[in-house]
Specification:
Elements (H helix, E strand, L loop, with lengths): L1 H12 L6 E6 L2 E7 L2 H4 L6 H13 L7 E7 L3 H9 L4 E6 L24 E4 L3 H15 L1
Parallel strand pairs: 3-4, 4-5
Antiparallel strand pairs: 1-2, 1-3
């Protein structure tokens, strides 16, 4: 999670919402990314989507079975869907997103029946730190 947080710091410095993501396979980091919505002028360039794209290129396979995703903020519906469809084993996130989170906050995705894959979820890793960088970012915006 510390590496994901470093990615969030990069986003902060680039005036992007400070969310960072890292994907790990067999104990090795295979992809790192942060939000790039402003830079790329597109709503789909969330840290998780960027990271999944990098991981699939690294492995030359869309199927990320055996991979864990570390992300500083609870993933939204789009990113949760991408993680599920990529077959990521575990999603570990820092802080909840009460407005857009789709793992536990607004949508409890494990209660959606019929999905072909359900990653394990772990929350609260470096929660205070992950939350504080977001609060500071939005304080500065206001």
């Amino acid at each position: 999670m510390k590496l994901a947080y470093k990615e969030a710091e990069k986003a902060f410095m680039e005036d992007e919402v400070p969310v960072g993501c890292v994907i790990v396979k067999d104990g090795k980091v295979i992809a790192k990314a942060h939000n790039k919505k402003e830079k790329k002028n597109s709503a789909i360039f969330h840290a998780e989507i960027e990271c999944i794209n990098k991981a699939t290129k690294k492995l030359n396979n869309w199927n990320l079975k055996g991979c864990d995703m570390y992300v500083t903020l609870e993933p939204c519906m789009m990113c949760t869907g991408a993680a599920v469809n990529s077959r990521i084993d575990r999603i570990i996130f820092g802080c909840r997103d009460p407005k857009g989170g789709a793992l536990v906050s607004n949508v409890e995705f494990k209660k959606i029946s019929g999905l072909n894959h359900y990653p394990e979820i772990e929350e609260g890793v470096l929660s205070d730190q992950c939350s504080e960088i977001l609060k500071e970012f939005f304080r500065r915006k206001r």
